[in-house]
Please model this.
Amino acid sequence: MGITLHYNGVLRHNTSLSDLIRDTMAVVKRSAGWGAHVFKETFPATSGHNADDSIYGMLFYAPESEPVYLTFDNNRQLRMWLFDSSEAKGIKRSTAADKQALKGAFTKTHYAGPEVHMRIVDLLRKLSEKYFEHFEMIDESGYWENRNATLLRERFGPEDTIASMLAQKLKAF
Model:
């Protein structure tokens, strides 16, 4: 339950992964409390099923939001590797050999609130236009489609603000 983004895509072949990471990190660094982890920043010279099992790209996270995955396999397909939440913030490995990967990704932003949700969606929109050959987004709030901040805030509603505040208090306890 809660507002979630579901997204999938393939990077253009002429896309510089390091440029995508640089553009994303610029937003992360300007956003209070946000963090990130960068994996490999360049794709191998050859692609294919057996090229390698590395994780390419990065993930970033805002307070009270699940991580946003901009991670790819060696064929430039967006993938979400399943890490537990403690592992996601302190990942030391850069291989996917022992992790399960999903095609595409999802991120629950519900408890982060509408402002964070808008910031993440706006960033994904810019990245999709600049770097992706193909990109699909299902935004349960409708903001991706309508870009209407007023409707988004109504969708989150006052009860979600109260739930978010309670969750923060319990976390501090």
In short: The beta strands are 4-11, 35-38, 56-61, 68-72, 78-81, 101-103, 105-108, 132-139. Confidence is low (pLDDT under 50) at residues 85-90, 92-97.
